[in-house]
């Protein structure tokens, strides 16, 4: 099949879409295209996910099982661990993780392994799009050479583009369908094919001149957030030392109708993007002898926040005549943001690690994450405990890490002995100044 024939299939919606990586990006993306009548074949190495989809069940809290079941029953959605079937789809979207190594260098092992698998089955007339966040140049410097080992050439035999994912789980206003999609191809033909493809299901597609511009776009978005979060985290520390309520200051500054947008402090960064993505650019920048001072300083500030929180907690216990060693500390929330079941890169894990190192007995409650599974750097054999009156009263300190909406903060305030609040959730509660310490 030629790229001209692929374009015809895109135009009439008769293509088969392949999505590689059925996680927090891939599964919602699948449903977005399925709702527009596009058939989807999903690929993942996790047999648990494949089994769940075959049974018509979702494994993500914000993705309804009813929709998965409907598309599976209608034979428009299926999933497999057999990567030899990569030759079947007309369009392939790569949605695999791009973590960091221990030395904070880009780890492209999942991208490279996926592209090698595509190369083994690549056929003329396919469009390959990388969605995984990475450094500028990855698509043309890493992905394209591997694919062209097949003997086929990009722009001639197959299309190749980059389009960064922009998922925000738990956001009631924006989902995949109405978040503008940035697209850049390795050439004009690839860009046009990718633009027309995404326009089948998404409300707005924004094209840029090349894959490098698209790759840099995603990094700029997340670096912007990382730097501004670091700024308010630093100001929080200063305000607490000066006896100023930083939350009051942020609210007052937010009244300015131009030139300002609010960012909020917290216990550290979490999620699959902001703690990781900026370092993809710092690594690449070294090749050009350009120091990325803002990015690296923001990383230092945000990485230090769990240590600051533990210091505040230790001081709060000390004021009550209690040592951190041997103290029972209950963490409220281990998800990286409120109202989601995603704990990737959550600062909760670093906080747990630090507290255990100092001899504290650590417990947690999170209604969205009933059990902690081993992750990249940590392995805690813990399950969420109920927020009962007795459990709260038995704790020497309750540490608010994630401000889930389901929490009854008045109940928690009533029955806890001491609270360290990193999210300002107890503002306005009478008597909070005697029991709540901000961190």
Radius of gyration: 24 Å
CATH structural class of the largest domain:
Alpha Beta
Distance between the termini: 60 Å
Mean pLDDT: 94
Tell me what the CATH architecture of the largest domain is.
3-Layer(aba) Sandwich
Q: How many β-strands, per DSSP? A: 13
Adjacency order of strands in the biggest sheet: 3-2-1-4-5-6-7-8
SSE pattern, N- to C-terminal? HEHEHHEEHEHEEHEHHHHEHEHEHEHE
Which structural class do the helices and strands define?
Answer: alpha/beta
Total individual domains: 2
Sheet with the most strands, sense and barrel status: 8 strands, mixed
What's the name of the CATH homologous superfamily of the largest domain?
A: NAD(P)-binding Rossmann-like Domain
**How large a portion of the residues is in β-strands, by DSSP E?**
5-15%
- CATH topology (level 3) name of the largest domain: Rossmann fold
**Any idea what the shape is?**
elongated
Helix content: 40-55%
Low-confidence stretches: none
Description:
With 439 residues, the chain is of the alpha/beta class. It folds into two domains: 207 residues, NAD(P)-binding Rossmann-like Domain (Rossmann fold), CATH 3.40.50.720; 186 residues, Rossmann fold (3-Layer(aba) Sandwich), CATH 3.40.50. It is built from 15 helices and 13 strands. Strand 11, helix 14 and strand 12 form a beta-alpha-beta unit. Helix 5 packs parallel to helix 6, helix 8 crosses helix 10 and helix 11 crosses helix 12. The mean pLDDT is 94.
């Amino acid at each position: 099949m030629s790229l001209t024939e692929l374009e015809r299939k895109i135009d009439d919606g008769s293509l088969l879409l392949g999505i590689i990586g059925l996680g927090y990006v891939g599964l919602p993306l699948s449903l977005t295209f399925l709702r527009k009548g596009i058939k989807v074949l999903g690929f993942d190495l996790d047999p648990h996910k494949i089994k769940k989809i075959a049974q018509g069940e979702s494994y993500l809290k914000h993705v309804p099982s009813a929709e998965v079941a409907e598309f599976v029953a209608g034979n428009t959605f299926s999933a497999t661990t057999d990567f030899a079937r990569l030759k079947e789809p007309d369009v392939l979207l790569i949605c695999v993780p791009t973590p960091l190594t221990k030395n904070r260098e880009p780890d492209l092992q999942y991208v490279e392994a996926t592209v090698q698998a595509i190369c083994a089955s690549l056929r003329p007339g396919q469009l390959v799009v990388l969605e995984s966040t990475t450094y500028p140049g990855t698509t043309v410097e890493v992905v394209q050479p591997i694919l062209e080992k097949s003997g086929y050439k990009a722009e001639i035999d197959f299309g190749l583009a980059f389009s960064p994912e922009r998922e925000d789980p738990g956001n009631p206003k924006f989902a995949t369908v109405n978040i503008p999609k940035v697209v850049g191809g390795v050439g004009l033909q690839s860009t046009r094919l990718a633009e027309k493809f995404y326009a089948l299901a998404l409300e707005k597609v924004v094209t840029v001149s090349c894959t490098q511009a698209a790759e840099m776009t995603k990094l700029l978005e997340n670096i912007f957030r990382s730097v501004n979060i670091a700024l308010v985290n630093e100001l929080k520390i200063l305000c607490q030392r000066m006896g100023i309520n930083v939350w009051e200051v942020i609210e007052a500054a937010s009244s300015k109708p131009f030139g300002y947008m609010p960012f909020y402090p917290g216990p550290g960064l979490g999620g699959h993007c902001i703690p990781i993505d900026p370092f993809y650019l710092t690594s690449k920048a070294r090749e050009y002898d350009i120091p990325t001072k803002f990015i690296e300083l923001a990383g230092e500030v945000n990485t230090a926040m769990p240590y600051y929180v533990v210091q505040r907690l230790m001081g709060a216990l000390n004021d009550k005549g209690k040592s951190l060693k041997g103290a029972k500390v209950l963490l409220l929330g281990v998800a990286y943001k409120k109202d989601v079941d995603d704990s990737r890169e959550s600062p909760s894990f670093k906080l747990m690690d630090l507290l255990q190192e100092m001899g504290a007995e650590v417990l947690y409650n999170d209604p969205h994450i009933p059990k902690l599974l081993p992750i990249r750097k940590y392995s805690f054999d813990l399950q969420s405990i109920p927020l009962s009156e007795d459990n709260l009263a038995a704790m020497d300190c309750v540490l608010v890490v994630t401000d889930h909406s389901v929490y009854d903060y008045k109940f928690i305030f009533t029955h806890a002995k001491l609270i360290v609040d990193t999210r300002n959730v107890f503002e306005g509660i009478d008597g909070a100044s005697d029991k709540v310490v901000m961190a």
